[in-house]
């Protein structure tokens, strides 16, 4: 029997593994994720109830979103393919004593085969732009959601403005992210992501932009989706 092809980029895994020890340093390269985490959680709660829900956090990294979801009452399974990041996530659980999170080293496609329709909510944030086949991830996320469940994505739009702000601005001018964090060709237009979701059997319910103000150094949700955006999808009953 042929082994399934792993939908992962070894260079991307190595990139995040090298930074793994900085996941919970709020002044490190992961500062933007810490800063936007409350907004991401609020967006999810605008559509779905986290309290007592079973949630899988796809591409959980060091667990920033996973722990935030658990703090709002969810029972969370965080999955990732970067083992060093998962070790940091597990160590941080020991520090915080958060009992409602477990972490697994497993691909989303493999978990979808193992546990289809097992989760009330699926989150896949800031991850699609780092994999060879985002459509495969979207399809697996759809399989993991129960009928009536919610699936949330966030990624970067692909246009001149996003290249200017998210790559040149964030990585080379402001130094908010390490150079080489993002590969522009892997950015996804909302229409492309929505089409992937529709093909996977999901209905797109909401789309919103995520914006950074370099003067206030703060983030807000709403408005255009030219650069960063979040998408809420629902699996039909």
Automatic annotation (TrEMBL):
Gene3D superfamilies: Vaccinia Virus protein VP39. Its EC number is 2.1.1.222, 2.1.1.64. This is Ubiquinone biosynthesis O-methyltransferase. It catalyses: a 3-demethylubiquinol + S-adenosyl-L-methionine = a ubiquinol + S-adenosyl-L-homocysteine + H(+); a 3-(all-trans-polyprenyl)benzene-1,2-diol + S-adenosyl-L-methionine = a 2-methoxy-6-(all-trans-polyprenyl)phenol + S-adenosyl-L-homocysteine + H(+). S-adenosyl-L-methionine binds at residues 40, 59, 80, 125. GO terms for biological process: methylation. O-methyltransferase that catalyzes the 2 O-methylation steps in the ubiquinone biosynthetic pathway. Belongs to the methyltransferase superfamily. UbiG/COQ3 family. It comes from the Bacteria. GO terms for molecular function: 2-polyprenyl-6-hydroxyphenol methylase activity; 3-demethylubiquinol 3-O-methyltransferase activity; polyprenyldihydroxybenzoate methyltransferase activity. The gene is ubiG. NCBIfam families: UbiG. Keywords: Methyltransferase, S-adenosyl-L-methionine, Transferase, Ubiquinone biosynthesis. CDD domains: AdoMet_MTases (cd02440). Pathway: Cofactor biosynthesis; ubiquinone biosynthesis.
